[in-house]
Amino acid sequence: ELKVEQNPLFLSMQEGKNYTIYCNYSTTSDRLYWYRQDPGKSLESLFVLLSNGAVKQEGRLMASLDTKARLSTLHITAAVHDLSATYFCAVDMGDMRFGAGTRLTVKP
Amino acid sequence: NAGVTQTPKFRILKIGQSMTLQCTQDMNHNYMYWYRQDPGMGLKLIYYSVGAGITDKGEVPNGYNVSRSTTEDFPLRLELAAPSQTSVYFCASSIGQGNTEAFFGQGTRLTVV
Questions:
Q1: How confident is the model at residue B103 (pLDDT cuts 50, 70, 90)?
Q2: How far apart are the C-alpha atoms of B8 and B113, rounded to whole Å?
Q3: Do A45 and B101 touch (CB under 8 A)?
Q4: Which chain A residues contact residue B99 at CB under 8 A?
Q5: In DSSP terms, which residues pair with B75 in a beta bridge?
Q6: Residue from A1, A96, A97, A104 to probe the interface with B (highest B Cβ count within 10 Å)
Q7: Does A45 contact B103 at a Cβ distance shorter than 8 Å?
Q8: Contact B42 A88 (CB under 8 A)
Q9: Closest to B78 in 3D by CA, of B42, B111, B38
Q10: Given an 8 Å threshold on Cβ–Cβ distance, is B42 in contact with A33?
Q11: Helix, strand, or coil here: B3?
Q12: Taking 80 as the threshold, does the pLDDT of residue A38 lie above it?
């Protein structure tokens, strides 16, 4: 069965702290994507990871991909309130499957 | 550059009615997708297409139909609407062939009463 599992599903953190969101998937793929969704809005692409060992960074967010472990991580450094959103990973398994999302709240 | 355009943005249907959600993209993308997102949940793939004339079922295709007669358009048809189809529907497109980064439309919020 094709599965994409994210954890945690809910994350409340204080400004200035670091944390990592995990995305595990069930079948071989070397194409993984991270998206951000603000409440009531559509999805916005954050990172495109197309090979084993790929690492991308944008501001306080850094994403990585380990295709052998079937694992991607989204690391948040020194969180700020503007990062509050829901973050989704998606894996190309022939079709595009999404994780359930991690709802991140950053508190002052 | 419009990207992916969905219409309508909002719709209320009565049980048993039918409707078509429109999706068009102007990026000459090969791949197109339809997802539904229930409140507080992730996205579930309904149907997708890797090119004109080709469509495939996703995770939750029952109660829906699609067609892909042109590269630009990928309409989603609901026949005999049911309350379980109340959701937000997103259309997306991607280049395909090695990079399937998806670009999303703004969504259609559908309520079936």
A1: very high
A2: 17
A3: yes
A4: 31, 48, 50
A5: none
A6: A96
A7: yes
A8: yes
A9: B111
A10: no
A11: coil
A12: yes
Residue given tokens 């960074």 in the structure block: A57
Residue A42, both tokens: 């559509």
**Strand duo B10-13 + A32-37: pairing:** unpaired
- Whether the per-residue pLDDT at A102 is higher than 80: the answer is yes
Report the candidate in B19, B9, B30 with the shortest Cα–Cα distance to residue B106. B9
Tell me the C-alpha distance between A32 and A55, whole Å.
11
Distant-in-sequence, close-in-space partners of B90: CB < 8 Å, separation ≥ 6 = A42, A43, B6, B34, B35, B36, B37, B43, B104, B105, B107, B108
* Chain B: closest CA distance from residue A78 (Å): 26
Distance CA A91, CA A70 (A): 10
Instruction: Tell me how far apart the alpha carbons of residues A20 and A7 are, in angstroms, rounded to a whole number.
Output: 9
Instruction: Write out chain B residues lying below 8 Å of A31, CB-based.
Output: 98-100
Chain B residues touching A65 at Cβ < 8 A: none
Contact B95/B42 with Cβ under 8 angstroms?
Answer: no
Assigned token pair, B74: 């990928």
